[in-house]
Amino acid sequence: MTKFFLLSNKHERRHTDAVAKRAITGEPMLLKDRVALITGSGRGIGRAIAQLFAAEGAAVFLTARTEKELSATAEEIAQGGGRAAFVTGDLAKEADCRAVFEKAIASFGRVDILVNNGGHYGPVVPVEEYPMEEFDRVLAVHLRTAFLLSKLVLPGMYERRRGVIVNISSISAKAAYRWGSAYAAAKAGLLGLTRYNAAEAARKGVRVRCSFVRRRPAQLLGKRSTWMAARFFTETSDSSVSSPPSLF
Predict the structure, then answer these.
(1) Long-range CB contacts (< 8 A, 24+ apart) of 129-133?
(2) Are 50 and 41 in contact (CB under 8 A)?
(3) Contact 180, 127 (CB under 8 A)
(4) Taking the CB of residue 26, how many other CB atoms lie within 10 A of it?
(5) pTM, rounded to two decimals
(6) For the chain, what is the mean pLDDT?
(7) What CATH class is the domain 4-241?
(8) Catalytic annotation on 158?
(9) Does residue 244 have a pLDDT over 50?
(10) Which of 121, 158, 183, 196 is catalytic?
């Protein structure tokens, strides 16, 4: 059965407390000697996942488009006694997906856990104004990347009869919001991919899960929040809100 989880600050605090307790009591780490590949791990949710996994004993391989953020996250993990490596890449491109996977294998020998977290919201415009090239990119970053990386890690997981794939979806996959059609379609697509992948992989010892994000992290909305408020709550012809600032 496919399982879905809702991420929230409450869950994060609970896991952080559990890690601290194990450090004091000497209880074994949950992910000792596991290897995790985490996309979009330079900031926000991906960074928090990487830090938590490292604290639980996993070696973490980080990837995103911004080297400075990846380097900072890897350094924080190393300073805390964890193991981390990283490489930059645009995972909307198939060649970059393969390069990231190969670098992870070269760094740590295998991938036990794949977290498909990388994201791109795209333009905040209604459907009739949405540029097709941006629609294609949003789907590529969220859905095509998850498919490609799953395709790459599954043979090794099947051979070991063990592994976990976590796809990070969003409430947008189930709730209707204005001006986010490509993002919602991509996140809904992840649900379908998770269900079918889970059905196939369960027979070979691999679990495939999907987690929902309750709230979009500040890093994702930061530069856009004022602009989005203008689009959502006012009618304006001011050219200053005609296009959103870049996320990256």
Answers:
(1) 130/181, 130/182
(2) yes
(3) no
(4) 6
(5) 0.80
(6) 82
(7) alpha beta
(8) no
(9) no
(10) 183
